[in-house]
Each structure stands twice: as C-alpha cells, then as structure tokens.
Write a structure and sequence with these properties.
With 223 residues, this protein is α+β, with helices and mostly antiparallel strands. The chain has helices spanning 24-28, 44-55, 57-62, 75-88, 108-112, 156-171, 194-200; strands spanning 14-17, 20-23, 32-38, 65-71, 101-103, 116-121, 127-129, 131-136, 142-148, 186-187, 206-207, 218-220. The structure holds benzoic acid (BEZ). Benzoic acid binds at residues 39-40, 43-46, 120, 128, 150-151.
C-alpha cells in the first residue's frame, strides 16, 4: 500500500522544483523538514495556505525547519502562481516564495506518498492531491503526518505549535497536553515509573488526584 508511516525513513526522492532539481535528503541537510502538498495551482484555498506559510517562514527557520511544498502542476505554473501568492500577501511582485514548490505533474510522488484525494478530481477526472503535511526529523524519519481533504485549509500557526512539541519531546522525556504552548507545564509520560520520575524531573512532579485513585495525571514544568 502506498504511503509512509511514523518512524519510516522518508523517501529520498528527486524532483523538479521552483529552485531546480533537488534530492530531498540533500535539500534538508541536518535540518528538520516540513513537506506540504496542495491540490492544484491557481486555486483559492491553496493560495491562502501558501500565503500564510510564506508569512511564517521566518518562524519555521528559527526552529531549523526547511519548508517544501508540492502541487500537481509544472514548474512554470508554480512560478506564475507564486506571483499571485505574493500579491495575495500584499508583497512586492519581485519577492519570491521563501521555499520551493515541487512539480508533480505526473502525480508520481502523490501516488508514492499516498497523497491523492479520491473525492477531488480535475476536469479530466484525475484525482488531485489532498492537503498532506509531513514533518521529517534531522534523522530523516517521519515524525508527524496530517491528511486533510482538499476542501479544508490547514492552520500553519498550529503546525508551528506542533513542531515546538515535536522538538521538545525529541530532546526530553515529556509529553505535551491538549492545547500546550511553549512555556506551559508538560506531562510525565505513562511509561515512566513513579520511583524514576523524581530523578528524571528535578523541577518536581505534581500529580492530580483522580476518582480512580490512579496516579497517571502527572505534570512537570517545561524543561
Ligand atoms: C482550493 O484550493 O481552493 C481547492 C482545491 C481543490 C478543491 C477544493 C478547493
């Protein structure tokens, strides 16, 4: 079955993009990566998404995350569409999108990575790409995937929040609760025994009493 699972090494594909021919792992280098696909160039929801992604590119760079987009059109179309995206953002026409867009006109990558949306088709009846997000770690393994249908735009501010959690939990044995934001308290994962927790979390572990009497709701300040 096409597709890629958490923990898999992300395919080191080669592709034509708006910055030329790339090999994904070389493009990413030692950075984290975020790869996001779009149904089609010159479509309204995609334009708003890429506009927001462009506005937030400095925030992704601060987190050492390289961005790359994909749509099932040609490099030439991507260049033309990029000008519209900059205009949507009220940026000067000479400004360029701060990340490349892959041209997947034959849908090779869309099929390989399980990204087609069977409910959205072009005028010839061929499926368009869904709105996939893949976050790739510096070890080139898949850390997160999200799949939205073509009709629902994503929230790139939420993706930054998610990356903050992924990066924190890659470095520390903690988990982040619902709606967590950087600086909020975090949770002690359930696989940490109580007698190890004191040594692992020097800032203290605070356990919430529950009717079950089970002591699994354990918080600690963000390391
Ligand atoms: C859009 O980007 O606006 C879009 C693309 C395909 C289906 C629906 C919406």
């Amino acid at each position: 079955m096409p597709g890629i699972l958490l923990g898999d090494v992300f395919p080191d594909f080669e592709a034509e993009t708006t910055i030329g021919h790339i090999k994904l792992h070389d493009y990413l280098g030692d950075s984290w990566g975020i790869f996001f696909s779009h149904p089609r160039d010159y479509t309204p929801v995609c334009t708003t998404e890429l506009g927001r992604a462009s506005k937030l590119s400095g925030e992704f760079s601060k987190r050492n995350v390289k961005m790359i987009a994909l749509s099932v059109d040609s490099v030439e179309d991507h260049h033309g569409w990029s000008k519209d995206i900059m205009a949507y953002n009220d940026e000067a026409p000479a400004c360029k999108l701060p990340f490349p867009i892959i041209a997947d006109a034959k849908r090779d990558l869309a099929v390989k990575l399980g990204m087609l949306d069977p409910d959205e088709r072009d005028k010839d009846g061929i499926p368009l790409t869904a709105r996939c997000v893949f976050v790739i770690g510096p070890d080139k393994k898949l850390k997160l995937s999200i799949l939205y249908p073509a009709t629902t735009g994503r929230n790139f501010d939420e993706l930054l929040r998610v990356i903050d959690s992924l990066q924190l939990t890659a470095q520390n044995r903690v988990a982040t609760p619902v709606g967590w934001k950087p600086g909020d308290r975090v949770m002690v994962p359930p696989n940490i025994p109580e007698d190890e927790a004191a040594a692992l979390y020097p800032a203290g572990v605070f356990t919430k009493d529950l009717p079950s009497g089970k002591k699994y709701l354990r918080y600690t300040p963000q390391p």
